[in-house]
């Protein structure tokens, strides 16, 4: 439990930094573009979240789990699942990018009620592979339970990408804000790739080559869960905003988006801690009794923390 609290503290600090950058970005967007810009930014972020969720589906929990399970046997033992993940990412990219380019004007009309913003959709789908690269790096680090490195690189990428985004908003107004939201995950992916180039696990032979159907099927099982999440939560928010836009207009929708950010941020402290600590921890345990015991101990800690934070926000 000490390790869970330690991970929660570290990921909490990372979440606070991301929260600070998020609030800074939201404040700059509100200053330069007003509530309408906030609403448009929310639509783009939900679209990016959904597409990133799809492209990152084979690069997330599955890679974390199998890396955690086999890391003691060396990187070569993890390689089949890493290769399978790359193959799935390439397959999804080959489908998602052409479809996104072809349907860009329709998606822009659905999101913004204006097809001239189709360029935002095009940019988003073209940079999707860089987002997957960042997720793969994060998953391998998380699977090895290198929490300090995980949090440190998360802070670095958040600060660098946030600085670039603020500059883009200041220079190009609403167009800069939308472009920044479209490429933020790709910028983080590039930072993660550069930061890990010298790591021993980032060798081409571990990531490219033949793998068996069992590994592809195992990663595919995790994809279904991730894609379901990617197609429900962000799209539901897009639908809610679309209804608000029709009923009360862009300005009121932007104000709703600002309030939504508050609840999204404080829950992020807990969800990031669980996502970082829990899956590798459960994967390393053997036996049902050990897993049930870990779940019970974690529940006794997490639920009071969530309740206290919710009360504090209220």
Describe this structure in words.
This protein has about 325 residues and is mainly α. The chain has one domain (about 1-314). The protein has helices spanning about 1-55, 60-70, 75-100, 105-110, 120-125, 130-145, 145-195, 205, 215-250, 250-285, 290-314. The protein starts with a helix and ends with a helix.
User: What count of helical segments does DSSP give?
Assistant: 11
Uncertain runs are none
Q: Can you give the mean pLDDT?
A: 79
Give the biggest beta sheet: none
Q: Count up the domains.
A: 1
Strand content: under 5%
Number of strands: 0
- What's the helix-strand series? HHHHHHHHHHH
Given helix and strand content, the structural type is mainly alpha
Keywords: Cell membrane, Membrane, Transmembrane, Transmembrane helix
Transmembrane segments: 50-68, 88-113, 119-141, 153-172, 178-197, 218-239
Organism: Vibrio harveyi (Beneckea harveyi)
GO cellular component, one term: plasma membrane
């Amino acid at each position: 439990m000490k390790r869970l609290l330690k991970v929660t503290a570290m990921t909490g600090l990372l979440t606070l930094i991301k929260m600070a950058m998020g609030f800074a970005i939201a404040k700059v967007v509100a200053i330069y573009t007003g509530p309408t810009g906030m609403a448009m930014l929310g639509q783009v972020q939900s679209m990016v979240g959904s597409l990133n969720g799809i492209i990152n589906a084979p690069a997330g929990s599955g890679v974390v789990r199998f890396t955690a399970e086999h890391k003691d046997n060396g990187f070569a033992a993890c390689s089949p699942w890493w290769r399978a993940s790359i193959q799935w990412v390439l397959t999804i990219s080959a489908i998602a990018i052409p479809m996104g380019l072809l349907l860009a004007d329709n998606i822009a009309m659905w999101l913004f009620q204006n097809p001239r913003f189709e360029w935002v959709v095009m940019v988003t789908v073209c940079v999707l592979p860089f987002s997957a690269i960042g997720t793969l790096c994060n998953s391998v680090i998380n699977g090895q339970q290198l929490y300090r490195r995980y949090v440190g690189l998360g802070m670095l990428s958040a600060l660098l990408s946030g600085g670039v985004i603020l500059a883009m908003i200041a220079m190009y107004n609403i167009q800069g804000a939308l472009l920044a939201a479209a490429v933020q995950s790709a910028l983080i992916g590039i930072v993660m790739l550069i930061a890990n180039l010298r790591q021993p696990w980032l060798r081409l032979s571990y990531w490219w080559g033949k793998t068996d159907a069992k590994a592809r099927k195992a990663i595919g099982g995790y994809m279904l869960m991730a894609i379901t999440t990617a197609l429900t939560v962000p799209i539901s928010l897009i639908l809610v905003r679309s209804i608000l836009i029709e009923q009360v207009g862009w300005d009121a929708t932007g104000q709703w988006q600002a309030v939504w950010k508050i609840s999204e941020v404080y829950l992020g402290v807990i969800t990031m801690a669980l996502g970082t600590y829990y899956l590798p921890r459960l994967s390393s345990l053997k036996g049902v009794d050990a897993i049930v015991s870990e779940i019970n101990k974690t529940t006794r800690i997490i639920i009071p923390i969530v309740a206290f934070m919710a009360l504090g926000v209220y």
